[in-house]
């Protein structure tokens, strides 16, 4: 596969310096960078996995909150103002 990318001047200059110091060909450097990124992404947990232990932890026990939210809020506000 052939890839073409555009780099801003600062990235291009940093890349040229790195390649010159290391003596690694550009294509090898890019292949290794892509390989590292792909390996890192595989090990990265999904947002769901990160928060799984929190979901439902503080549940109200009511399964109608999304349907009756306005009535429930009205009841709570009325009860608060009665006191």
Topology diagram in text:
Blueprint lengths: L8 H14 L3 H18 L3 H5 L17 H14 L1
Pfam family, one: DUF6290
Protein name: BrnA antitoxin family protein
Organism: Thiothrix winogradskyi
Structural notes for this entry:
By secondary structure, this protein is mainly α. The chain is 61% helix and 0% strand. The chain has a domain of 41 residues. The longest helix is centred in the middle third of the chain and has 18 residues. The protein is elongated.
Structural class: mainly alpha
- Taken as a percent bin, the fraction of beta residues is under 5%
The biggest beta sheet, please? none
Radius of gyration: 27 Å
| Low confidence ranges | none
Could you say which overall geometry the principal axes of the C-alpha atoms support? elongated
Kindly, what is the distance between the CA atoms of the first and last residues, rounded to a whole number of angstroms? 72 Å
- Name the average pLDDT: 88
Count of β-strands: 0
The helix content, as a percent range, equals 55-70%
Pfam family, one: DUF6290
InterPro entries: DUF6290, Ribbon_hlx_hlx
Protein name: BrnA antitoxin family protein
